[in-house]
Design a protein that fits this description.
about 210 residues, mainly beta, SH3 type barrels, Structural Genomics Hypothetical 15.5 Kd Protein In mrcA-pckA Intergenic Region, Chain A, OB fold (Dihydrolipoamide Acetyltransferase, E2P)
Length: about 210
């Protein structure tokens, strides 16, 4: 399996220049590798060696857990904690559809939003919920595929369901309008699409292309 990919072939949502070294580290998920984030986006590490040293010293946490590999990817809305400075950053999407980082408070860094990609019933009248960031939870929460949930890192559980409904604020995570936010005006269940009001502009997106924020 290839450990690197050509810079020109890097995902379009990585905010990196297409010029420079020929190869960049390969992502191990749909997110962005920690090395790329620290070196190319945040510009607080000069090279891979510095990132590996920080990992060895346990100076980096992702969603409250120590990082063990510089290839570890952050998923959308994951929290990166820089232990020495006690600063927390959330991975977000810019309006241009590129990954970006924004500083967040310690209180807000205790959890995140993720989208439900699948669910199945298991013994004990419980449900296994599969999320967009790769996490799986056993819960009795009433929810549907396509909804979002709020996760608590410390309690390692789902706190709340955020259903797809008219009036909900959503983020477009894929397609032509990636990075834009809007309020659901209408849901077309037959076509599996929604009409959104995004700053006065009406957009149409597939339900699978959006994530509910509240």
């Amino acid at each position: 399996m290839k450990r690197h990919l050509k810079r020109q072939e890097a995902p379009k949502n990585w905010p990196i220049t297409r010029k420079g070294s020929i190869f960049v580290i390969k992502n191990n998920s749909n997110g962005i590798p920690l090395l790329i984030l620290l070196r190319d986006v945040m510009k607080i590490a000069q090279d891979r060696k510095e990132v590996k040293q920080a990992i060895h010293k346990k100076h980096l946490l992702i969603c409250g857990k120590p990082v063990i590999n510089e290839k570890k990817s952050l998923e959308l809305f994951d929290i990166l904690t820089l232990v020495p400075s006690k600063k927390n950053y959330r991975l977000v999407l810019s309006e241009k559809g590129k990954y970006d980082i924004e500083e967040t408070s310690e209180k807000e860094s205790s959890g995140k939003i993720a989208k439900i990609l699948g669910k199945k019933s298991i013994k004990g009248k419980k449900t296994q919920i599969n999320l967009s960031d790769g996490r799986n939870y056993i819960s009795d929460l009433k929810c549907a595929v396509g909804d979002s949930v709020i996760i608590d890192f410390e309690k390692n559980k789902i706190l709340k369901n955020l259903p797809i409904k008219e009036g909900s604020e959503v983020l477009i995570t894929k397609g032509k309008y990636t990075g834009l936010k809007g309020k659901i005006m209408k849901i077309d269940h037959n076509e599996k699409m929604v009409d959104l009001d995004s700053s006065g502009k009406i957009l149409r997106a597939l339900i699978k292309q959006i994530m509910v924020l509240n």
